[in-house]
Amino acid sequence: xxxxxxxxxxxxxxxxxxxxxxxxxxxxxxxxxxxxxxxxxxxxxxxxxxxxxxxxxxxxxxxxxxxxxxxxxxxxxxxxxxxxxxxxxxxxxxxxxxxxxxxxxxxxxxxxxxxxxxxxxxxxxxxxxxxxxxxxxxxxxxxxxxxxxxxxxxxxxxxxxxxxxxxxxxxxxxxxxxxxxxxxxxxxxxxxxxxxxxxxxxxxxxxxxxxxxxxxxxxxxxxxxxxxxxxxxxxxxxxxxxxxxxxxxxxxxxxxxxxxxxxxxxxxxxxxxxxxxxxxxxxxxxxxxxxxxxxxxxxxxxxxxxxxxxxxxxxxxxxxxxxxxxxxxxxxxxxxxxxxxxxxxxxxxxxxxxxxxxxxxxxxxxxxxxxxxxxxxxxxxxxxxxxxxxxxxxxx
Length: 396
What we know:
Thiolase-like, Thiolase_C_2, 9-stranded mixed β-sheet, Thiolase, 12 helices, Thiolase C-terminal domain-containing protein
């Protein structure tokens, strides 16, 4: 169906039409632009639509005038654009913006695309690992004291331990289960099993986080195509519907963070579930930003999968495994599969593949009755719990 920008909304529903990954893991010979293009082509092919339908584009993190420069590289001339950049939550926030634009009739097909060669760039000496986001503005009062990004997460984790009795063994369980989920994912960078003891005995990075409490550094890209329901009859695959979304911001400086044990997902999650008309108990799987193990734990609490302070016991006994009570990060997440920077878009790709039943025979999630999952949530976190975007998706 041919649509034109500005088509009256008619309360249109929004579907995920296509998803794809670029080459991921160790990609030494590609540029970030090439990974953007590869993922975009694959997502478009997955949808079965012609590129001429794309009238909206969202990208962040690359180019002098993102997303203009990336759109030019891809040969696109969009009439709706978004370059929101709020760290790891960027892509869930962008998906929310894109869905709103489609409902409003401002766009009919919005392409979200990301690509990064973070690992390859460091290996080749084209960049160095960054310890902070900068020293201007409010951050000038923290950076001189060596308060790095990971130190902020570590401090928050320590507070949760002190306040609720959360143990390092419980946090380590998150890394162990992420690696177990990655074991059957051919695209995952690390697939070998690990134990709680191995997590605890690893080299210390920022107390209490050892190396395996932290996400990996990889290369990779991905793309997601969102479309108006009018285009669904033309799709090559089953649509996955955007049922609801929510966004929130919290703080920049740690002194302005009201409670180290509460993330902005407590707000974005509540809004997303309310707008989708579903409850956390109805969700079949969750894709959660996991730059560090504590992120997974506190986000599970804040999304309402368990009460505040009960995240430690909740993650025990294999609950997060692909065949557990609440499969979480079914591809292995940022702790095992890939983490090329702002990983939020990868959460949406994995959630869609699981809802379509396309994850593969060895790692497809099923409900207790053997049927395919019907509802999924993707929740991204940016900065050091500075921002959050949550999207609820439903099987078509």
